[in-house]
Write a structure and sequence with these properties.
With about 220 residues, the chain is α/β, with parallel strands linked by helices. The protein is built from eleven helices and eight strands. It has a single domain, classed as Aldolase class I (TIM Barrel, Alpha-Beta Barrel). An eight-stranded parallel barrel has the order 1-2-3-4-5-6-7-8, surrounded by seven helices. The structure holds SN-glycerol-3-phosphate.
């Protein structure tokens, strides 16, 4: 499973790229608003740091507008993927952009049927929002299992990008359910590395190493 960062924060992206585990980045208007910077300039900077796909979200509500915005985004860098919303107009835009060679990420997907439609429209990525389903009392990660089964049944090539990930348990569950990609906030990414026994083990090894140095000096 590929690991993407769901952020527009350059410092966070640089840290993950430096570690060497950052297969791509997803952004949206909310994340850009948090940074308070120009969207296109920020995308350009992100694309210069990350080799993998970088999703840029359109804000038009009609297909023509989404295509126009998408074509502008696509000029920024080769690894730009254009986000369109899961609506009839969004799917029209998805077909048009895909036909012109631009990769699409269909966002705001909350049901398996929506994911089926996105695959039929030729989307490159489909983004089911699991955390927001949890918020309304559903089991968000179940949606990943359903989409996986449908895509496998019919050989759809669209990649399942589990989005709206809120914790490390989500990451494990979507990996077990066969998501192709998980995109997550940097906070969750950092937590993936942690385990209390790892910390305890490091301390124990270092303590013993110090003891050995003392013994050798005697
Ligand atoms: O980028 C889309 C998605 O990951 C947003 O997550 O936490 O705002 O539901 P969240």
């Amino acid at each position: 499973m590929k690991i993407f960062l769901d952020t527009a924060n350059l410092a966070e992206i640089k840290k993950a790229v430096d570690i060497g585990i950052c297969d791509g980045v997803t952004t949206n208007p909310t994340l850009i608003m948090k940074e308070g910077k120009d969207y296109k300039k920020t995308l350009k900077e992100i694309c210069s740091i990350v080799k993998g796909p970088v999703s840029a979200e359109t804000v038009s509500l009609n297909a023509e507008g989404m295509v126009r915005e998408g074509k502008e985004f696509a000029k920024i860098a080769k690894n730009i993927v254009v986000k369109v919303t899961m609506t009839p107009e969004g799917m029209k835009a998805c077909r048009m952009l895909t036909k012109s060679g631009i990769k699409v990420n269909t966002t705001l997907v909350f049901s398996a049927n929506q994911a089926l439609l996105a695959a039929k429209a030729g989307t490159y990525l489909v983004s089911p929002f699991i955390g927001r389903l949890d918020d309304i009392g559903e089991k968000g990660t179940e949606l990943i299992r359903e989409i996986r089964q449908i895509y496998d049944n019919y050989g759809f090539k669209s990649l399942i990008l589990a989005a709206s990930i809120r914790n490390v348990e989500h990451v494990k569950e979507v990996a077990m359910m066969g998501a192709d990609i998980a995109t997550m906030p940097f906070k969750v990414y950092e937590q993936l590395f942690n385990h209390a026994l790892t910390d305890k083990g490091i301390k124990m090894f270092l303590d013993d190493w110090q003891k050995l140095q003392k013994q050798l000096k005697k």
